[in-house]
Amino acid sequence: MPSEHLPSEHLPSDAPDPGPQFERRSLLRLGALLAAGGAAALLPAPVAHATTRGQGTDTVTTSYRGHSPQGTDQWAYVAFDVPAGVQRISVATTHDAAAGILDLGIFGPSGFRGWSGGARSGFTLSAADATPGYAPGPVEPGGWSVVLGPMVGAAGGMAWQVDVTLHHGDPLPRAPYDILPTAVAGRGPGWYRGDLHLHSVHSDGQRTVDEIVAAARQEGMHFIATSDHNTSSTGVTWRGNVPTDLLVINAEEVTTRHGHWLAVGLPQGEWVDWRYGPANPGVFESHARRVHSLGGLTIAAHPLTPAAGSFWEFGLDRVDALEVWNGPWTLDDAANIAAWHVMLCLGKRVAAVGNSDAHSPADAVGRPHNVVHAASLSTPAVLDALRLGRSYAVESAAVTLDFTARTGGSVAGPGEELPLSFFDAVDVTLNVTGAPDSIATLYTEWGIMAATWIDGSGRGQLRWRGWGKASMFVRAEVRRPKPASTTLDQLVAITNPVWFYSAQLPPYDVEQRVLFHTARRPDGAWSSMRPLPGAEGAGSFAGVQSAAAGLPDGSVVVLGIAPDNGLWLTTVRGSATLQPWQRVPGPDGSTGFTVREADIAAFPDGTCQLVVTAMDGTTYHQLRRADGGLPGFRPLPGLTAKSRWGATKVSITAMPDGSAQLLSYGTDGAMYHCVRGRDGTWTPWGRPAGYNGAPTFAGPALAITGMPDGSAQVLAIGLDGIVYHQLRRADGSWTGFRPPRGVTTPTMGASAIGIAGTPDGSAQVVAVGLDGRIWHNVRRPDGSWTPFAQIPGPNGRDAFPAGQVRITALRDGSAHVTAVSAG
Q1: pLDDT in tens, 790-812
Q2: Are both 325 and 250 inside the same structural domain?
Q3: DSSP character for 646?
Q4: Is 4 helix (H, G, I), strand (E, B) or coil?
Q5: CATH number assigned to the domain comprising residue 404
Q6: Fewer CB atoms inside 10 Å of the end CB: C or N, the chain?
Q7: Strands (E), 289-346
Q8: Where is the stretch described as Disordered (predicted)?
Q9: Does some domain include residue 570?
């Protein structure tokens, strides 16, 4: 039957049905309902036939009724036969909307023909046209199946009905479609902007593809990928509207019940199945291999969205890239970045991307999007660059980054590897434009190395000198300290890392970075360096940072930050561990509290004070009672009334009068100092001057220690990678920074430092030098320095390669060193 004679409710439409709509991230709103349902078996639900109407006419309708139990992981198949002469199939469904969602699709004798999920309650398809989400094509005689995906929250299950109408008539002409070009002519090597996650009316979006193209142009995109849910129909409906100035990449968002993933770069008409889970071994991997064989890219979409069906369960390292930023910045995006950072620390080179996931006209295309350095503006070149991480993500086209690392004559950008010897100097530079009132930050696996404030002009530069394989990568972020819907800040930009691997050196594994302990006796002899036993029965404590404080009874309280950024605490005396590791709870009592930095100071009464910077930069403080009790963290006051202090690095020391002095790099990158009085009050934060007349001091590391005379000594590493030292006199004045002499050079380059004052008025210093070894020296009470000497390794002879080091002193003049091995 020609389409003009069909009832209007069966005609294809460029907009979804007016029934229940499921907007962007709708599963978040349904999570509580569906979580109670669990996972039902992947078995067809029982189906009962109702009466067939219209037999002997050109329009025959058969109704099928069924019932699905409570659960989210189930499919129901309504099988029916199509005789020769049928030109169109129309399907309509009804169900109790209060019981849940009824996803909808169809398969024909040759396979997949369409899917609309829960966005539609019906569709029609023929050779000439089809409802968006369904592929036009001949209606083949043979066995067909309507596939239903009931997501049922009601305890009593869900009843549903499917009406299948077969329209007989004269053959309809086939609908041709245009082939999308694989390249935009005349565009060679360069940086290109694009959004890989966009939804149209072919799934649950509200834009046509023409409207998506127009919105992409308006936002300054060079390429887009149309990635509708579980359907190939978008790719086969381009007719006379393919843009010549914008690269369109065909894609699909594969929406399983166990996480969503983007198959980007599929040939038009190709379709990827979604009906499987982690309980089906190897199935996801087989689909990913097929996508790769077709030249495509696999991306885990919004992997840590805490909703039924959205949370990624197939393994974060089994895809080419992670969508760490999905649409407007939220708390689950922050969780994505934290998980991705841990993967980088494990040496897993999985690229990060940011996409808008735009569904409605209210969702801005390209916010966020990726800026990719590709050999050309072509699908193969863009996908290759994304796979390698030759990209960064930004909030809008107003933001541009220039992020490089240099050593000698070599330079590398995001996703590239810089060839290095073990501790070659590496100069990292980040130039930012278009990001007013924000904070730029550099990260390695050791945490934040440097930060700087970008003023209202939106332009800023951040420089840092690292030491090659002292870190295995460096990456950058730009954030705006302004609350978003669920966070205290907003992400402006994030880069993929520059890698510092060398072909001659194996990659690091953070799980092999073990926390070691050694002691220096008052006579200057060192005890054997040994690993500390691990938490929860592990043979050793794997960590990324440590801190230590010597108590009056001769024991040492040790803090360790694990690879997952959890904060742990134990006590040692000599070679004995006095108590098991205890996970330190967060400000709200949560045992899942994670931190970037931590330090601890011990007082004569047996108490300790802890300071930490949380993952969002907020700095917290708490007392540890003499009996070991932890009453809880409280935020440090900020620069203004009722504000909280934010920091990238923090150090604390105990003073003879019972006060504590804190040293910190603020979120603007500058060094700050304050005092906590014995009564618990805080002085305002003040900024010490920098070296050689500079107004401020900035760098990747700092430490402070109190002295018996009421002064304090500060040790810090500057952005040039050099160690600097100064005194804060008892009257609060500063002597100014000076660089101590190095091992064989006029200055000391280092990647980590520690300082501890001893009862005789001297200060003991430790540093991880340019050779990756731990070095020790003493600043005498008269201001002179002993030469640096290497601390022996675990066998008492060989040097010990380390990535982070801290030192604390005891009353008897001994000193205890904690160090994290460099892999």
Answers
A1: 999 887 666 778 889 999 999 99
A2: yes
A3: B
A4: helix
A5: 2.60.40
A6: N
A7: 297-301, 321-326
A8: 1-22
A9: no
Q: How many CB atoms lie within 10 A of CB 180?
A: 17
Whether residue 83 contacts residue 141, with contact meaning beta carbons closer than 8 Å, is answered with yes
Residues 86, 183, single domain; the answer is no
Q: Is 465 exposed, middle or buried (0-12, 13-18, 19+ CB in 10 A)?
A: buried
Q: Residue 43 belongs to a domain with what CATH number?
A: 2.60.120.380
Distance CA 166, CA 175 (A): 20
Indicate whether 389 and 403 sit together in one domain: no
Instruction: Determine the length of the chain.
Output: 823
Contact 276, 284 (CB under 8 A): yes
**81 in any annotated domain:** yes
Are 289 and 431 members of one domain? no
Q: What is the rounded CA–CA span in Å between residue 597 and residue 805?
A: 13
Query: Which CATH number do you get for residue 702?
Result: 2.120.10.70
CB 427 within 8 A of CB 420: no
Query: For residue 801, is it within any domain?
Result: yes
- State both tokens at 410: 């070599």
Closest CA to 326 of 354, 351, 345, 348: 354
Q: Is 227 left (phi over 0), alpha (psi -120 to 50) or beta?
A: beta
**Amino acid in position 158:** M
Residues 469 and 431 in one domain: yes
Per the CB < 8 A criterion, the answer to whether 754 and 763 are in contact is no
pLDDT at 41: 35
The answer on 799 and 697 residing in a single domain is: yes
Block residue for tokens 């996480």: 259
Q: Give percent helix, percent strand, percent coil of the chain, each to the nearest 5.
A: 10, 45, 45
Give the pair of three-digit tokens for residue 166.
């077969």
Low-confidence ranges of the chain (pLDDT < 50): 1-43, 503-509
Residue at 163: amino acid letter:
D
Buried b (16+ CB within 10 A) or exposed e, 552-562: eeebbbbbbbb
At position 64, the amino acid (one-letter code) is Y
Structure tokens at 387: 């796979």
Q: Does residue 407 sit in the same domain as residue 385?
A: no
Q: Map tokens 């050793």 to a residue.
A: 540
Give the Cα separation of 796 and 530 in Å (integer): 10
Strand partners for 452: 440
Domain count, the chain: 4
Q: Would you say 498 and 416 are in contact if contact means Cβ atoms under 8 Å apart?
A: yes
Tell me, yes or no, whether 551 lies in a domain.
Answer: no
**592 close to 614: Cβ distance less than 8 angstroms:** no
Beta bridge partner(s), residue 392? 371, 495
Q: Tell me how far apart the alpha carbons of residues 164 and 703 are, in angstroms, rounded to a whole number.
A: 74
**Burial (Cβ within 10 Å: 0-12, 13-18, ≥19) of residue 3:** middle
For every residue of 437-462, DSSP letters joined together read SEEEEEEETTEEEEEEEE-TT--EEE
How many beta carbons lie within 10 A of that of residue 181, not counting itself?
A: 14
The total of other beta-carbon atoms located within 10 Å of residue 268's CB is 15
- Which of 168, 193, 217 terminates a domain? The answer is 168
Q: What are phi and psi of 303, to 5 degrees?
A: -65, -30
CA 580 to chain centre: 31
- Whether 524 contacts 509, CB under 8 Å: no
CB within 8 A of 704, min separation 6: which ones?
Answer: 651, 652, 653, 661, 662, 663, 673, 712, 713, 714, 715, 755
Phi, psi of 44 (to 5 degrees): -60, 140
DSSP state letter for 591: T
Tell me which residue range forms the domain holding 18.
3-168
Per-residue pLDDT of 499-525, as tens digits, reads: 986 544 444 445 568 999 999 999 999
pLDDT at residue 793, as a whole number? 85
Final residue belonging to a domain, choices 469, 491, 507: 507
Longest dimension (CA), the chain: 110
Written as six digits, the tokens of 641 are 């009334």
Tell how strand 460-467 and strand 425-433 pair up: antiparallel
Judge contact between 729 and 711, C-beta under 8 A.
Answer: yes
Q: For residue 750, which amino acid is it?
A: A
